[in-house]
Design brief:
This protein is an alpha/beta fold. The chain is built from nine helices and eight strands. It has an eight-stranded parallel sheet. Helix 1 crosses helix 2 and helix 4 crosses helix 5. Bound molecules: pyridoxal-5'-phosphate.
Length: about 240
């Protein structure tokens, strides 16, 4: 076997171990609160990770990837078959059509205008009903997009009527915290919001996408059904350019 094959096999093995380790941590967190970990889907957030490495991740058993930029995803997704893709970052109106073509799930529907546009475009493209999550700015953090909790109450009746979207649940990005425990109130608030909204609107599904590398175990304890984990799987990302 050539040196390149060797290196690739090491890469696959390292990713397989990282994946196993995160799954074990999810499992342990679920056991602490007597949940079944099969109710938690792991989305491997692969932003900035080159497509060659993602091919190794597929060999290592990764099944679902998350990307936050349509343009970056457009260069990766066509090269990797047999896996699923979630959009987890803010979607600009002019990229909505591409996002519908590329992604299986759009987790970051953060305004009524965007929801209307996605439903209309999905109708034009192929008429398939698209699973989406509504992103909620639980902490009212000015640096983040997402519905404010009161606004989502008001928007839900119209969102529920959009013919080509299926509202699978809610998503949030927790505040930058000193410790994982600091994120817990955000996760509790998202779960309570979901319970309250679902009591009045059966169109809203029960998915709760919350928790990232630093706090996904706390999110599992608080009822996450989707965790979005990047660095704990792929290692630290390069510092953003210009930032
Ligand atoms: C980058 C990102 C993640 C993953 O963050 P890590 O800290 O690398 O686990 C999750 N969700 C969103 C929306 C992201 O942009």
């Amino acid at each position: 076997m050539g040196r390149q094959d060797d290196e690739q096999d090491h890469g696959v093995e390292a990713l397989r171990e990282a994946h196993e380790h995160v799954l074990e941590r999810i499992d342990a967190a679920c056991r602490r609160v007597e949940r079944d970990s099969s109710g938690v889907q792991l989305v491997a957030v692969s932003k900035t990770v080159p497509v060659e490495r993602l091919a190794l991740a597929v060999r290592a058993g990764f099944e679902v990837f998350g990307e936050n930029r349509v343009q970056e995803a457009a260069s990766k997704i066509p090269q990797l078959g047999g896996v699923r893709w979630h959009l987890v970052g803010h979607l600009q109106a002019n990229k909505a059509r591409s996002a519908l073509e590329l992604f299986d799930v759009i987790e970051s529907v953060d305004s009524i205008d965007l929801a209307r546009r996605l439903s209309r475009l999905a109708g034009e493209l192929d008429g398939r009903v698209r699973p989406v999550l509504l992103q909620v700015n639980v902490d009212a953090d000015p640096a983040k997009t997402g519905f404010d909790p009161p606004a989502i109450d008001a928007a839900l009746p119209e969102l529920a009527e959009l013919p080509n979207l299926r509202l699978d649940g809610l998503m949030t990005v927790g505040r930058l915290a000193q410790s994982a425990e600091d994120a817990r109130p955000t996760f509790v608030a998202l779960r309570r919001l979901s319970d309250r909204l679902r009591a009045v609107s059966p169109a809203l599904g029960g998915e709760l996408s919350m928790g990232m590398s630093d706090d996904f175990e706390v999110a599992c304890e608080e009822g996450a059904t989707i965790v979005r984990v990047g660095r704990a799987l792929f290692g630290a990302r390069p510092a953003p350019r210009g930032g």
